[in-house]
Design brief:
The chain is an alpha+beta fold. It has two domains: 2-250, Porin (Beta Barrel); 258-417, OmpA-like domain (60s Ribosomal Protein L30, Chain: A, 2-Layer Sandwich). Helices cover 19% and strands 41% of the residues. The strands form five sheets. Strands 1-5-6-10-11-12-13-14 form an eight-stranded antiparallel β-barrel. The chain has a four-stranded mixed β-sheet with strand order 17-20-18-19.
């Protein structure tokens, strides 16, 4: 019990440390997640899953859920059911032990009592498990664009197992009538390692391997006889679902995080701790084409000029963009043809373009991307012969009034008539 007490102190000390850890991801959002798992458990006690007669696995499934506090840290609880199989180790076979119906080991068959040689049966252990772990994503300490979809969690954990052992002859499936086949409760501590890959904005697939050292008597129901190990090793495949996006990294899974262009913009904008709206920045809008964006593009509160309408104009249009992208797609540009014809036929018309972003990411990066989207639409009109002086552009950043993220990623296009 002393070891369990020390491990609990260590466990919660790590939790406190992780909660206080500072992250460099300013766009991170906390969130819950849940998941399901299934796999193969092994165990080691007086008997072992890795015995001279073969490797004896089992089956397990479970549910888990947690809360992600930061890109580095999450707290997770798990529930599971499983069954593992063990057979006699080499030492027991060499000593030719017999297991009698009173639950004791003998060097020979005891008189007046049923007994079985340890080489003739296996121990089948059924268990229910509840655990608590602190997960530290090691990749978050040096995240790159190539690793944004990946996570590598190292997790100290504490757990409680309720076990019941039965003894099954290799020659049949009927359990032996041995009194040691009773249930018992075990508390333990250990650690796990999990590698996971984010499949989409919400779903992740992972492989987890955890090793737990249990206290109290051996889970296999066999007397110790020199074997002191009482371990459970579980290997599972996990599928998790993020109830709330836990960070910008989580939401970036659809496109592998910010593209290289946006990452460069983010690094540039964060120099000195804040965005400098007065400094022009040259960014690449498309292959071989660059555009210089200055204070006008980045102003979050810039008001576009108002115009007095004289006659009915084409309705405003919204053109939509993919996550973390600002390239105007062909199917979206087709919405602008009516507005384009109106501009060509009436030189008094002026065009206003307002770029918007969804809620994912930092204010700084979204302000830049919203400006790039508006500039991309402006570039399309210029390529069709519209003079740049007739086009007003503004990047508005995050649209907090739009709950649909796909609709938030847009440029609002509207015609107005200039006052003569």
């Amino acid at each position: 019990m002393k070891g369990l007490r020390y491990s609990a102190i260590f466990f919660f000390s790590l939790l406190a440390f992780g909660s206080a850890a500072k992250t460099q991801d300013d766009s991170f959002r906390r969130g819950w997640y849940v998941g399901a798992e299934a796999g193969v458990p092994f165990s080691l006690n007086s008997f072992s899953s890795f015995a001279p007669s073969g490797v004896y696995g089992g089956g397990a499934f479970g549910l888990y859920g947690g809360y992600r506090f930061s890109p580095l840290l999450s707290l997770e609880a798990d529930l599971g059911l499983g069954r593992t199989n063990l057979a006699a180790q080499a030492g027991c076979l060499d000593n030719n032990y017999y297991f009698a119906s009173d639950g004791l080991l003998y060097y020979a068959k005891p008189l007046g009592m049923d007994s079985w040689n340890v080489s003739d049966f296996r121990s089948r252990v059924s268990y229910a498990r509840i655990g608590l772990s602190v997960n530290f994503d090691l990749l978050s300490l040096y995240r790159t664009s190539a690793s944004r979809r990946w996570a590598l969690d190292l997790s100290p954990r504490i757990a409680a197992y309720s076990t019941r052992a039965a003894f099954i002859p290799f020659s049949s499936a009927e359990a032996l009538p041995i009194s040691q086949g009773k249930g018992s409760l075990h508390f333990g501590y250990g650690a796990s390692m999990r590698a996971s890959y984010r499949l989409s904005e919400s779903f992740s697939l992972g492989l987890k391997s955890s090793l737990t050292a249990l206290g109290a008597q051996g889970i296999d129901g066999i007397p110790d006889h020199g074997h002191k190990s009482n371990l459970v090793w579980e290997n599972t495949l996990q599928l998790s679902y993020a109830i709330l996006p836990s960070s910008r990294k989580a939401s970036s899974a659809l496109n592998g995080g910010l593209s290289g262009k946006a990452e460069a913009i983010q690094r540039e904008s964060q120099k000195g701790g804040s965005l400098n709206p007065c400094r022009s920045q040259r960014v690449e809008l498309s292959e071989g084409t660059t555009e210089v964006l200055g204070a006008r593009s980045f102003a979050s509160a810039r008001n576009l000029p108002s115009f007095d309408p004289r006659k009915e104009l084409p309705q405003s249009q919204s053109v939509y963009f993919a996550f973390d992208k600002w390239d105007l797609r062909r199917e979206e540009s087709s919405k602008l043809l009516e507005i384009l014809e109106a501009l060509r036929s009436d030189n008094s018309l002026r065009l206003s373009l307002e770029g918007w972003c969804d809620r994912y990411g930092s204010e700084q990066v979204n302000m830049i991307i919203s400006s790039l989207r508006a500039e991309s639409v402006k570039k399309w009109f210029i390529s069709k012969g519209i003079d740049a002086s007739r086009i007003e552009v503004a990047g508005r950043g995050i649209d907090r009034n739009e709950s649909n993220n796909a609709k938030a990623r847009r440029v609002q296009v509207q015609l107005s008539r200039a006052i003569e």
